Protein backbone atom coordinates (compact mmCIF):
# COMPACT_ATOMS: atom_id res chain seq x y z
CA UNK A 1 0.00 0.00 0.00
CA UNK A 2 1.21 3.50 -0.89
CA UNK A 3 -0.17 5.62 1.93
CA UNK A 4 -1.11 9.14 0.81
CA UNK A 5 -3.74 9.98 3.43
CA UNK A 6 -1.54 11.69 6.01
CA UNK A 7 -4.07 14.53 6.27
CA UNK A 8 -6.31 12.06 8.11
CA UNK A 9 -3.56 10.48 10.19
CA UNK A 10 0.14 9.92 9.65
CA UNK A 11 1.49 6.52 8.64
CA UNK A 12 3.82 4.85 9.26
CA UNK A 13 4.77 5.84 12.79
CA UNK A 14 8.34 6.02 14.15
CA UNK A 15 9.41 2.51 15.16
CA UNK A 16 10.49 3.57 18.63
CA UNK A 17 7.04 4.98 19.42
CA UNK A 18 5.38 1.58 19.70
CA UNK A 19 8.32 0.31 21.73
CA UNK A 20 8.00 2.98 24.43
CA UNK A 21 4.25 2.44 24.54
CA UNK A 22 4.72 -1.30 24.93
CA UNK A 23 7.35 -0.75 27.61
CA UNK A 24 4.85 1.36 29.54
CA UNK A 25 2.05 -1.18 29.20
CA UNK A 26 4.22 -4.13 30.18
CA UNK A 27 6.39 -2.74 32.95
CA UNK A 28 5.07 0.31 34.81
CA UNK A 29 1.62 1.46 33.60
CA UNK A 30 0.17 2.78 36.86
CA UNK A 31 -2.44 5.53 37.05
CA UNK A 32 -0.52 8.85 37.09
CA UNK A 33 -1.43 11.30 39.81
CA UNK A 34 -3.73 8.82 41.55
CA UNK A 35 -1.36 6.78 43.70
CA UNK A 36 1.94 7.16 45.50
CA UNK A 37 3.49 3.84 44.51
CA UNK A 38 6.48 3.46 42.18
CA UNK A 39 4.50 2.43 39.06
CA UNK A 40 2.12 5.38 39.31
CA UNK A 41 4.95 7.81 39.98
CA UNK A 42 7.02 6.55 37.03
CA UNK A 43 4.04 6.87 34.70
CA UNK A 44 3.49 10.42 35.94
CA UNK A 45 7.14 11.27 35.32
CA UNK A 46 6.99 9.88 31.78
CA UNK A 47 3.80 11.85 31.04
CA UNK A 48 5.49 15.02 32.30
CA UNK A 49 8.49 14.33 30.07
CA UNK A 50 6.13 13.94 27.10
CA UNK A 51 4.44 17.23 28.01
CA UNK A 52 7.83 18.95 27.93
CA UNK A 53 8.83 17.30 24.65
CA UNK A 54 5.62 18.39 22.90
CA UNK A 55 5.74 21.90 24.39
CA UNK A 56 9.29 22.39 23.12
CA UNK A 57 8.15 21.98 19.51
CA UNK A 58 5.96 25.08 19.76
CA UNK A 59 8.23 27.17 22.01
CA UNK A 60 5.78 26.88 24.90
CA UNK A 61 7.62 28.17 27.96
CA UNK A 62 5.43 26.52 30.62
CA UNK A 63 4.63 22.87 29.77
CA UNK A 64 1.94 22.92 32.45
CA UNK A 65 -0.17 25.08 30.14
CA UNK A 66 -0.28 22.26 27.58
CA UNK A 67 -3.38 20.14 28.13
CA UNK A 68 -3.69 16.59 26.83
CA UNK A 69 -6.93 15.63 25.06
CA UNK A 70 -7.95 12.76 22.83
CA UNK A 71 -7.90 14.77 19.57
CA UNK A 72 -8.07 18.26 18.05
CA UNK A 73 -11.86 18.20 18.12
CA UNK A 74 -11.90 17.88 21.90
CA UNK A 75 -9.24 20.58 22.18
CA UNK A 76 -11.27 23.01 20.06
CA UNK A 77 -14.46 22.27 21.98
CA UNK A 78 -12.63 22.85 25.26
CA UNK A 79 -11.30 26.18 23.98
CA UNK A 80 -14.57 27.42 22.50
CA UNK A 81 -17.02 26.26 25.18
CA UNK A 82 -14.56 27.01 27.97
CA UNK A 83 -13.82 30.57 26.88
CA UNK A 84 -16.86 32.08 25.18
CA UNK A 85 -19.87 33.58 26.97
CA UNK A 86 -23.29 35.03 26.16
CA UNK A 87 -22.94 38.21 24.07
CA UNK A 88 -19.50 37.36 22.69
CA UNK A 89 -18.68 37.63 18.99
CA UNK A 90 -16.24 35.38 17.13
CA UNK A 91 -14.50 35.85 13.80
CA UNK A 92 -13.70 32.71 11.82
CA UNK A 93 -13.23 31.69 8.18
CA UNK A 94 -14.92 29.69 5.45
CA UNK A 95 -11.94 27.31 5.32
CA UNK A 96 -12.57 25.82 8.75
CA UNK A 97 -13.11 22.19 9.64
CA UNK A 98 -16.44 21.24 11.18
CA UNK A 99 -14.59 20.90 14.49
CA UNK A 100 -14.69 24.71 14.53
CA UNK A 101 -17.89 25.43 12.62
CA UNK A 102 -20.17 22.99 14.45
CA UNK A 103 -19.23 24.13 17.98
CA UNK A 104 -19.73 27.74 16.89
CA UNK A 105 -23.15 26.84 15.51
CA UNK A 106 -24.03 25.12 18.79
CA UNK A 107 -22.83 28.16 20.75
CA UNK A 108 -25.45 30.31 19.02
CA UNK A 109 -27.94 28.82 21.49
CA UNK A 110 -25.81 30.32 24.28
CA UNK A 111 -25.87 33.79 22.74
CA UNK A 112 -22.50 33.63 21.00
CA UNK A 113 -22.49 35.11 17.50
CA UNK A 114 -19.90 34.57 14.78
CA UNK A 115 -18.86 36.04 11.44
CA UNK A 116 -17.39 33.86 8.70
CA UNK A 117 -14.74 35.53 6.52
CA UNK A 118 -14.81 34.03 3.02
CA UNK A 119 -11.67 32.94 1.23
CA UNK A 120 -10.95 33.12 -2.48
CA UNK A 121 -11.05 30.22 -4.94
CA UNK A 122 -7.64 29.04 -3.72
CA UNK A 123 -8.81 29.04 -0.12
CA UNK A 124 -6.70 32.06 0.82
CA UNK A 125 -7.79 34.40 3.62
CA UNK A 126 -6.22 37.81 4.21
CA UNK A 127 -5.42 39.26 7.61
CA UNK A 128 -7.07 42.49 6.48
CA UNK A 129 -10.37 40.71 5.87
CA UNK A 130 -10.28 39.18 9.33
CA UNK A 131 -9.53 42.56 10.92
CA UNK A 132 -12.41 44.14 8.99
CA UNK A 133 -14.82 41.54 10.42
CA UNK A 134 -13.97 42.42 14.02
CA UNK A 135 -16.43 44.45 16.10
CA UNK A 136 -16.40 45.90 19.59
CA UNK A 137 -18.04 42.64 20.73
CA UNK A 138 -15.36 40.37 19.22
CA UNK A 139 -13.82 38.26 21.95
CA UNK A 140 -12.04 35.63 19.87
CA UNK A 141 -10.62 34.92 16.43
CA UNK A 142 -10.47 31.24 15.53
CA UNK A 143 -8.86 30.04 12.33
CA UNK A 144 -7.08 27.08 10.84
CA UNK A 145 -3.33 27.28 10.35
CA UNK A 146 -3.61 25.37 7.08
CA UNK A 147 -6.71 24.12 5.30
CA UNK A 148 -7.35 20.40 5.53
CA UNK A 149 -9.00 20.62 2.09
CA UNK A 150 -6.56 22.62 -0.05
CA UNK A 151 -3.54 22.78 2.25
CA UNK A 152 -3.62 26.58 1.98
CA UNK A 153 -1.43 28.17 4.66
CA UNK A 154 -3.08 31.04 6.49
CA UNK A 155 -1.43 34.33 7.53
CA UNK A 156 -1.00 33.26 11.14
CA UNK A 157 1.65 35.78 12.21
CA UNK A 158 -0.16 38.69 10.55
CA UNK A 159 -3.47 37.79 12.19
CA UNK A 160 -1.66 37.24 15.50
CA UNK A 161 -0.17 40.73 15.31
CA UNK A 162 -3.60 42.26 14.67
CA UNK A 163 -5.34 40.32 17.44
CA UNK A 164 -2.59 41.21 19.89
CA UNK A 165 -2.93 44.91 19.05
CA UNK A 166 -6.71 44.65 19.49
CA UNK A 167 -6.43 42.66 22.74
CA UNK A 168 -8.38 39.76 21.21
CA UNK A 169 -7.13 36.17 21.66
CA UNK A 170 -6.29 34.00 18.63
CA UNK A 171 -7.28 30.34 18.73
CA UNK A 172 -5.42 28.38 16.06
CA UNK A 173 -6.57 25.02 14.74
CA UNK A 174 -3.23 23.34 14.09
CA UNK A 175 -4.59 20.03 12.82
CA UNK A 176 -2.91 20.30 9.41
CA UNK A 177 0.12 22.42 10.29
CA UNK A 178 1.44 21.26 13.67
CA UNK A 179 4.60 19.33 12.85
CA UNK A 180 4.39 20.27 9.16
CA UNK A 181 5.30 23.95 9.42
CA UNK A 182 7.15 25.89 12.15
CA UNK A 183 4.90 27.31 14.88
CA UNK A 184 5.97 29.59 17.71
CA UNK A 185 3.05 30.47 19.99
CA UNK A 186 4.66 33.60 21.43
CA UNK A 187 6.22 34.99 18.26
CA UNK A 188 3.02 34.37 16.26
CA UNK A 189 0.64 35.75 18.88
CA UNK A 190 -1.22 32.47 19.38
CA UNK A 191 -3.28 32.52 22.59
CA UNK A 192 -4.62 28.97 22.22
CA UNK A 193 -3.31 26.23 19.97
CA UNK A 194 -5.29 23.06 19.34
CA UNK A 195 -3.56 20.22 17.54
CA UNK A 196 -3.53 16.43 17.15
CA UNK A 197 -0.83 14.05 18.24
CA UNK A 198 -1.53 11.57 15.46
CA UNK A 199 -0.92 13.71 12.35
CA UNK A 200 2.16 15.91 11.89
CA UNK A 201 3.57 14.91 15.26
CA UNK A 202 3.53 11.24 14.15
CA UNK A 203 2.04 10.04 17.42
CA UNK A 204 -0.71 7.48 18.12
CA UNK A 205 -4.41 7.91 17.45
CA UNK A 206 -6.39 9.15 20.42
CA UNK A 207 -3.94 11.91 21.38
CA UNK A 208 -4.33 15.67 21.09
CA UNK A 209 -3.34 18.88 22.88
CA UNK A 210 -4.52 22.36 23.71
CA UNK A 211 -2.06 25.10 24.64
CA UNK A 212 -3.55 27.86 26.78
CA UNK A 213 -1.66 31.14 27.21
CA UNK A 214 -1.32 32.63 30.74
CA UNK A 215 -3.78 35.44 30.01
CA UNK A 216 -6.56 33.02 29.04
CA UNK A 217 -9.10 31.84 31.62
CA UNK A 218 -11.00 28.68 30.70
CA UNK A 219 -13.82 26.72 32.27
CA UNK A 220 -13.36 22.93 32.19
CA UNK A 221 -15.27 20.89 29.64
CA UNK A 222 -15.17 17.66 31.67
CA UNK A 223 -15.89 17.34 35.38
CA UNK A 224 -14.60 14.50 37.51
CA UNK A 225 -11.56 13.06 39.19
CA UNK A 226 -8.29 14.95 38.90
CA UNK A 227 -6.24 13.43 41.70
CA UNK A 228 -6.34 16.84 43.42
CA UNK A 229 -8.73 18.45 45.95
CA UNK A 230 -10.68 15.19 46.18
CA UNK A 231 -12.75 16.33 49.18
CA UNK A 232 -14.28 19.18 47.18
CA UNK A 233 -17.23 18.70 44.82
CA UNK A 234 -16.08 21.71 42.80
CA UNK A 235 -13.94 21.07 39.73
CA UNK A 236 -10.40 22.42 40.22
CA UNK A 237 -9.37 24.97 37.60
CA UNK A 238 -5.64 24.39 37.97
CA UNK A 239 -3.69 23.55 34.81
CA UNK A 240 -3.19 20.91 33.66
CA UNK A 241 -4.92 18.54 36.13
CA UNK A 242 -8.23 20.42 36.32
CA UNK A 243 -8.69 20.09 32.57
CA UNK A 244 -7.66 16.44 32.25
CA UNK A 245 -10.41 14.85 34.33
CA UNK A 246 -10.44 11.07 34.51
CA UNK A 247 -7.67 8.64 33.68
CA UNK A 248 -5.56 9.91 30.82
CA UNK A 249 -4.20 7.88 27.91
CA UNK A 250 -0.74 7.53 29.46
CA UNK A 251 0.71 5.01 26.96
CA UNK A 252 -0.50 7.13 24.05
CA UNK A 253 0.85 10.33 25.57
CA UNK A 254 4.21 8.70 26.24
CA UNK A 255 4.28 7.50 22.63
CA UNK A 256 3.43 11.02 21.49
CA UNK A 257 6.31 12.39 23.52
CA UNK A 258 8.68 10.04 21.73
CA UNK A 259 7.32 10.98 18.29
CA UNK A 260 7.50 14.69 19.09
CA UNK A 261 11.15 14.21 19.93
CA UNK A 262 11.70 12.53 16.55
CA UNK A 263 10.03 15.46 14.77
CA UNK A 264 12.23 17.86 16.77
CA UNK A 265 15.38 15.99 15.79
CA UNK A 266 14.51 15.82 12.10
CA UNK A 267 13.37 19.44 12.13
CA UNK A 268 9.96 20.83 11.25
CA UNK A 269 11.49 23.04 8.55
CA UNK A 270 13.10 20.01 6.92
CA UNK A 271 9.83 18.08 7.03
CA UNK A 272 7.98 21.05 5.55
CA UNK A 273 10.47 21.33 2.68
CA UNK A 274 10.29 17.59 1.95
CA UNK A 275 6.49 17.56 1.84
CA UNK A 276 6.24 20.63 -0.37
CA UNK A 277 8.73 19.21 -2.85
CA UNK A 278 6.63 16.06 -3.14
CA UNK A 279 3.44 18.08 -3.66
CA UNK A 280 5.19 20.20 -6.27
CA UNK A 281 6.19 17.01 -8.08
CA UNK A 282 2.58 15.79 -8.08
CA UNK A 283 0.92 19.11 -8.93
CA UNK A 284 3.22 19.95 -11.82
CA UNK A 285 2.57 16.56 -13.39
CA UNK A 286 -1.21 16.33 -13.08
CA UNK A 287 -1.94 19.94 -14.02
CA UNK A 288 -0.79 19.00 -17.51
CA UNK A 289 -3.39 16.24 -17.80
CA UNK A 290 -6.24 17.81 -19.79
CA UNK A 291 -9.13 16.17 -17.94
CA UNK A 292 -7.81 16.78 -14.40
CA UNK A 293 -8.83 19.83 -12.32
CA UNK A 294 -6.37 20.88 -9.62
CA UNK A 295 -7.51 23.12 -6.75
CA UNK A 296 -5.81 25.33 -4.20
CA UNK A 297 -2.70 27.52 -4.30
CA UNK A 298 0.81 26.88 -5.58
CA UNK A 299 2.92 24.35 -3.61
CA UNK A 300 4.93 27.10 -1.89
CA UNK A 301 1.72 28.42 -0.35
CA UNK A 302 0.40 25.18 1.11
CA UNK A 303 1.29 22.21 3.27
CA UNK A 304 1.59 18.67 1.90
CA UNK A 305 -1.90 18.42 0.40
CA UNK A 306 -3.08 18.24 -3.20
CA UNK A 307 -6.76 18.37 -4.12
CA UNK A 308 -8.03 17.34 -7.54
CA UNK A 309 -10.82 15.84 -9.60
CA UNK A 310 -10.89 13.82 -12.80
CA UNK A 311 -13.67 15.18 -14.98
CA UNK A 312 -16.68 12.92 -15.57
CA UNK A 313 -15.54 10.50 -12.83
CA UNK A 314 -16.93 10.94 -9.32
CA UNK A 315 -14.30 11.57 -6.69
CA UNK A 316 -15.39 8.54 -4.66
CA UNK A 317 -14.86 6.31 -7.69
CA UNK A 318 -11.39 7.77 -8.28
CA UNK A 319 -10.37 7.09 -4.68
CA UNK A 320 -11.82 3.59 -4.83
CA UNK A 321 -9.96 2.77 -8.03
CA UNK A 322 -6.69 4.16 -6.70
CA UNK A 323 -7.11 1.83 -3.76
CA UNK A 324 -8.31 -1.31 -5.58
CA UNK A 325 -6.30 -1.12 -8.79
CA UNK A 326 -3.11 0.62 -7.68
CA UNK A 327 -2.87 0.11 -3.92
CA UNK A 328 -2.85 3.86 -3.23
CA UNK A 329 -4.67 5.29 -0.20
CA UNK A 330 -6.22 8.76 -0.55
CA UNK A 331 -9.42 10.39 0.71
CA UNK A 332 -12.38 11.63 -1.31
CA UNK A 333 -15.52 13.61 -0.50
CA UNK A 334 -15.95 16.78 1.54
CA UNK A 335 -13.33 16.19 4.25
CA UNK A 336 -15.56 17.40 7.12
CA UNK A 337 -15.29 20.93 5.73
CA UNK A 338 -18.30 21.69 3.55
CA UNK A 339 -17.86 25.48 3.57
CA UNK A 340 -14.29 25.10 2.31
CA UNK A 341 -15.57 23.11 -0.66
CA UNK A 342 -18.21 25.76 -1.31
CA UNK A 343 -15.45 28.39 -1.21
CA UNK A 344 -13.23 26.70 -3.80
CA UNK A 345 -16.08 25.58 -6.09
CA UNK A 346 -16.36 21.85 -5.33
CA UNK A 347 -19.62 21.99 -3.36
CA UNK A 348 -21.44 19.82 -5.90
CA UNK A 349 -18.69 17.29 -6.51
CA UNK A 350 -16.36 16.99 -3.55
CA UNK A 351 -12.78 16.14 -4.51
CA UNK A 352 -9.89 13.72 -4.10
CA UNK A 353 -7.30 14.67 -1.47
CA UNK A 354 -3.76 13.34 -1.65
CA UNK A 355 -1.70 14.15 1.44
CA UNK A 356 1.97 13.33 2.02
CA UNK A 357 4.08 12.86 5.13
CA UNK A 358 7.72 12.61 6.20
CA UNK A 359 7.95 8.98 5.07
CA UNK A 360 6.47 9.58 1.60
CA UNK A 361 8.98 9.20 -1.24
CA UNK A 362 9.32 10.58 -4.72
CA UNK A 363 8.74 7.06 -6.01
CA UNK A 364 5.38 6.97 -4.23
CA UNK A 365 4.40 10.23 -5.93
CA UNK A 366 5.49 8.98 -9.35
CA UNK A 367 3.29 5.93 -8.98
CA UNK A 368 0.37 8.14 -7.91
CA UNK A 369 0.88 10.36 -10.98
CA UNK A 370 0.92 7.34 -13.26
CA UNK A 371 -2.25 5.99 -11.64
CA UNK A 372 -4.13 9.28 -12.04
CA UNK A 373 -3.04 9.46 -15.69
CA UNK A 374 -4.19 5.92 -16.40
CA UNK A 375 -7.58 6.46 -14.75
CA UNK A 376 -8.14 9.81 -16.48
CA UNK A 377 -7.16 8.47 -19.89
CA UNK A 378 -9.14 5.25 -19.54
CA UNK A 379 -6.03 3.09 -19.64
CA UNK A 380 -6.53 1.42 -16.27
Descriptive report:
It is a single chain. This protein is of the alpha/beta class and 380 residues long. It has two domains: 2-9 and 267-376, Aspartate Aminotransferase, domain 1 (Alpha-Beta Complex); 15-266, Aspartate Aminotransferase, domain 2, CATH 3.40.640.10. Helices cover 38% and strands 15% of the residues. It contains eleven helices and 13 strands. The protein has helices at residues 15-27, 38-57, 72-83, 98-107, 127-133, 156-166, 250-266, 268-286, 315-326, 338-344, 362-376; strands at 2-3, 66-69, 89-93, 113-117, 138-144, 170-173, 192-196, 208-212, 292-295, 305-310, 328-329, 331-333, 351-355. The strands form three sheets. A seven-stranded mixed beta sheet has the order 2-8-7-6-5-3-4, sandwiched between helices. Helix 4 links the parallel strand 3 and strand 4. The protein is globular.
Q: How do the helices and strands line up, and which of them pair or pack?
A:
Elements (H helix, E strand, L loop, with lengths): L1 E2 L11 H13 L10 H20 L8 E4 L2 H12 L5 E5 L4 H10 L5 E5 L9 H7 L4 E7 L11 H11 L3 E4 L18 E5 L11 E5 L37 H17 L1 H19 L5 E4 L9 E6 L4 H12 L1 E2 L1 E3 L4 H7 L6 E5 L6 H15 L4
Parallel strand pairs: 1-11, 3-4, 3-5, 5-6, 6-7
Antiparallel strand pairs: 2-8, 7-8, 9-10, 10-13, 12-13
Helix pairs in contact: 1-7, 2-7, 3-4, 5-6, 8-11, 9-11
Which features characterize this protein?
38% helix, 15% strand, 2 domains, 380 residues, Aspartate Aminotransferase, domain 2, seven-stranded mixed beta sheet, alpha/beta
